[in-house]
Specification:
The complex is a heterodimer of chains A (52) and B (763).
Chain A lengths: L1 H26 L6 H7 L12
Chain B lengths: L23 H7 L1 E2 L4 E7 L6 H13 L3 E7 L4 E7 L6 H8 L15 H28 L4 H35 L6 H20 L7 H30 L8 E5 L5 E5 L8 E4 L9 E5 L2 E4 L10 E3 L4 E2 L4 E2 L4 E5 L7 H12 L2 H4 L3 H28 L2 H15 L2 H20 L2 E3 L2 H8 L3 E5 H5 E7 L7 H11 L5 H7 L11 E6 L3 E6 L2 E7 H4 L17 E5 L2 E6 L1 E5 L3 H10 L3 E5 L4 H11 L3 E3 L4 H13 L4 E4 L6 H6 L2 E5 L4 H6 L2 E3 L6 H35 L5 H24 L2 H8 L3 H4 L2 E3 L3
Parallel strand pairs in B: 15-23, 15-25, 23-24, 25-26, 26-27
Antiparallel strand pairs in B: 1-2, 2-4, 3-4, 5-6, 5-7, 7-13, 8-11, 8-13, 9-10, 9-12, 14-27, 16-22, 17-18, 18-19, 19-20, 20-21, 22-28
Chain lengths: 52, 763
């Protein structure tokens, strides 16, 4: 029972961390262009065209 | 273009080649101010589809003066450019040089998709809650007892609160909306079931009870939200793809003031009495009368006439026609809101009937389903009260009945099939606006086609090229390359180098033809009467239509050309397939009877009505509807738009006028008309799968409900039963994906030969 007292909060905290991380990624526009993101890793970044 | 092989979405690039590129004034009008002198322009670039495209475009645009930055969005096939200053950098021209067509799209399509991000957030929250609660529930089912079980229940109750408030909010709002308007939809039983299950579980938890349904209520929301999100993503994808097509309506026009100054004004600010300058290649934004200039007009989108019309000062013009050859100055006779275009929109709104009255299968089922479920639960409660007198037990069992019947499978049964069907159609280049369109399409028994631009391409083709002297044809092709008249384009397609003399001093005479000189000779390509001014009059009229297009040398006719309007590829096959599917096919056109008769004969269409006004098309469709038919309308012109609205369901090609594309339920992006029978086949198959899925859901209920009424359902059984029925309907829906590979193969490799089945255009 005592182990539960800290294991459950720990589990929930880690889960919530993942959730917040996902929501943050969503807010910051990382899901706006999934196809583009997949292709962009092929582009050499020798200029700052990504600044927009 | 430096790209990989063209794929389905490359078909988006299919556009009327004569559609004018947006002018810099138009781009400026459509741009957004970002503060300071910084402005942002969003362009749709349908041909982008790999990393090389992204880099080429971003580098080239970034190097332009005054451009702060450019960013390509590959998913939406758009590029947004930030630039400074008053003058628009040559964005479209730069993209054009790289091989990418760029279009402006409607400004209201701007901004982020709020519903989608709300849905995704709701899925995330519900998924988090469902996962954690399910973990705790498994411990309870495995035998957690006493204080431990209470603790787990309390933690579950706490986690469920944000999930219900945030993710459930979507369903509560929708259910409330439906109830307030006296309707029933699938969200009503969901909202009632979920909230009652939560309330009962909370009561159980407070009283140290054994059974709590927190997991059921939250995982129910999670599953249903996934279905809803998929549905939304599919529709959104179709909408963006349609929005990415070239705008065919002008956004503004150059106004010539009395004092001689010129202003580019948005269409909404143009008033009657103003003078407009319309360059060759532009569309006429409002109704007007020509004051100066002569030209040829392409009226195919407006009236359905396939032959360009010559106009001179004094002639009236309708909004939406395309000015082909010469600059025009016109006096505005009606503001945009009173113009032909706006009149079409009004006619369309007045005609809208069939689809507004249509109720989706899911709504019809739930209108029956919800009362039955709620009544069953209530009767169960009364029955247990009467039998045992234990109200707590009666309530618990009644709520178990509600949960087990909660339409998880039913809520997924319809949208999942429609999402899979829409995906199949998307791969074949057909965009579906919403799920109800698929249901309506499955029910049709009559298909009505427009002629110009739908059954035919609306572009003439030279048919007697083989009988024309190759040297003359080469000269004609060189001359024709200087004009955007459709006949010229048809001739220019035969350009070869055959040692022809170099042309000098090429000039275009609007409404007449093209004149050029070579060493010692004057060549004219155009109307017989103008080009062959020395020809004997006996020759006149030998080639009927178009007054005869000829090439002359020093006034003597040396070659004559005959044109036909080519039918869309596979038009004949498509018509036959529709007939095989038990659909009767008709043709309505604004064009003259002769031209219609030819097309009807070639495509084997039994009945047609020529020379119809837009309202005539609507009346014809309404008459068919009154006679008990369900009518499919396929059309592209402005004059078809009201008919598209009046029909039970409608199709438009990607080359259709903007409002036609917006009015249609389906937009097909490829040239082939086979899209229509393909979509009909898929929609019928989808209808069949939907009925199967509903049957599965009902059988599941028939088995599960008696168990629940007898009081044997525990949270464990509820969780297993609900998941199993959901998986069953999803699996059944996916069968559509695997179905009939041969139909797809036919649609992706259209038989171009049959498109050459051209017809003699006679007007």
């Amino acid at each position: 029972m005592t182990t539960l007292a800290y294991l459950i909060p720990v589990a929930l905290f880690l889960g919530a961390l993942g959730l917040v991380g996902f929501l943050w990624a969503l807010m910051s526009g990382q899901y706006e262009d999934l196809d583009g993101a997949a292709e962009r890793i092929l582009i050499d970044r020798d200029d700052k065209a990504d600044q927009l | 273009m430096s790209c990989c092989a063209p794929d389905a979405e490359m078909a988006l690039a299919l556009n009327r080649s004569e559609a004018a590129l947006p002018s810099s004034q138009e781009i400026r009008l459509a741009s957004r101010a970002l503060g300071g002198d910084l402005r942002q322009t969003d362009l749709s670039v349908p041909a982008v589809h790999c990393a090389a495209c992204i880099q080429t475009i971003e580098t080239a645009l970034g190097k332009l003066g005054r451009v702060e930055g450019a960013r390509v969005n590959l998913s939406t096939k758009r590029v947004s450019i930030r630039w400074r200053g008053d003058e628009v950098p040559p964005l479209v021209a730069t993209l054009g040089r790289l091989g990418y067509d760029a279009h402006l799209f409607d400004p209201e399509a701007d901004g982020k998709d709020k519903t989608l991000s709300e849905l995704i957030r709701a899925v995330a929250v519900a998924g988090f809650a469902a996962g954690n609660i399910m973990l705790l529930s498994v411990s309870v089912w495995s035998g957690a007892e006493g204080a431990t079980r209470d603790l787990f229940h309390w933690v579950s109750a706490l986690i469920a609160i944000p999930a219900l408030a945030f993710a459930g909010g979507i369903y509560f709002r929708s259910a409330w909306n439906a109830l307030r308007h006296g309707r029933m939809n699938m969200d009503v039983p969901i909202a009632v079931g979920v909230s009652l299950a939560y309330a009962m579980s909370l009561y159980e938890t407070i009283n140290h009870g054994e059974h709590a349904y927190f997991d059921a209520s939250v995982s129910l929301l999670f599953f249903l939200l996934i279905g809803r999100t998929l549905d939304h993503v599919m529709r959104e994808r179709a909408r963006t793809a349609v929005n990415g097509l070239a705008r065919l309506a002008a956004r503004g026009a150059m106004v010539l003031r009395d004092d001689g100054t010129r202003d580019y004004l948005p269409v909404g600010e143009i008033e009657p009495g103003m003078h407009l300058l319309i360059a060759a290649g532009e569309r006429i934004p409002v109704d007007g009368r020509i004051v100066r200039g002569a030209s040829d007009l392409d009226c195919s989108l407006v009236s359905g006439e396939s032959t360009p019309r010559s106009v001179a000062p004094g002639d009236m013009m309708q909004a939406g026609v395309l000015n082909l050859t010469g600059p025009l100055s016109l006096e505005v006779t009606a503001a945009a809101k009173d113009s032909f275009l706006a009149e079409m929109v009004r006619l369309m709104e007045a005609a809208e009937g069939g689809r507004a009255r249509y109720r989706r299968i899911a709504d019809r089922v739930s209108a029956l389903y919800a009362p039955v479920v709620h009544l069953t639960a209530f009767v169960t409660f009364l029955g247990w009260m009467a039998a045992t007198g234990d109200w707590h037990r009666a309530v618990t069992i009644a709520i178990a009945v509600l949960i087990i019947t909660c339409p998880c499978a039913l809520g997924l049964a319809v949208p999942i099939v429609q999402v899979v069907a829409a995906r199949r159609l998307f791969e074949a280049g057909v965009m579906v606006k919403d799920g109800s369109a698929l249901e309506r399409l499955a029910a049709i028994d009559t298909a009505v086609f427009d002629k110009t631009g739908t059954l035919t391409l609306g572009q003439p083709r030279l048919v007697n090229a083989s009988s024309v002297d190759p040297a003359m044809l080469a000269i004609a092709a060189d001359m024709a390359a200087h004009s955007r008249h459709p006949f010229s384009k048809a001739i220019a397609a035969f350009a070869v180098f055959a040692g022809q003399p170099k042309l000098e001093a090429v000039s275009e005479h609007p409404g007449l033809g093209i004149e050029a000189t070579t060493a010692g000779s004057t060549w004219r390509l155009g109307r017989r009467g103008w080009a062959g001014w020395k020809a004997r009059t006996g020759d006149e009229g030998k080639f009927g239509g178009h007054g005869g297009t000829v090439l002359s040398r020093n006034g003597m006719i040396v070659a004559s050309f005959t044109f036909e309007d080519a039918t869309r590829s596979d038009a004949k096959t498509a018509v036959r397939q529709l007939k095989d599917a038990g659909v009767s096919v008709e043709m309505l056109s604004g064009d003259i009877a002769n031209a219609c008769g030819e097309v009807a004969r070639m495509l084997d269409i039994g009945s047609f009505v020529p020379a119809l006004l837009p309202s005539g098309k609507v009346e014809h469709i309404e008459a068919l509807t009154r006679a008990g038919h369900r009518v499919l309308m396929v059309g592209d012109g402005l004059n078809d738009t009201p008919a598209l609205g009046a029909a039970h369901v409608s199709f438009a090609p990607a080359t259709a006028a903007d409002i036609g594309r917006n009015a249609a339920d389906f937009v097909f992006l490829r040239e082939s008309l086979l899209a229509v029978p393909l979509a009909l086949g898929i929609s019928r198959k989808a209808g069949q799968l939907i009925r199967q899925n509903l049957a599965i859901a009902i059988i599941y209920n028939a088995v599960a409900v008696p168990i629940a009424i007898l009081g044997y359902v525990t949270p464990l059984i509820a969780a297993i039963a609900m998941s199993a029925s959901s998986l069953l309907v999803i699996g059944n829906a996916l069968r559509l994906q695997a179905l009939g590979p041969h139909t797809q193969a036919r649609s992706t490799a259209p038989d171009r030969r049959s498109g050459i089945d051209a017809l003699a255009q006679s007007s």
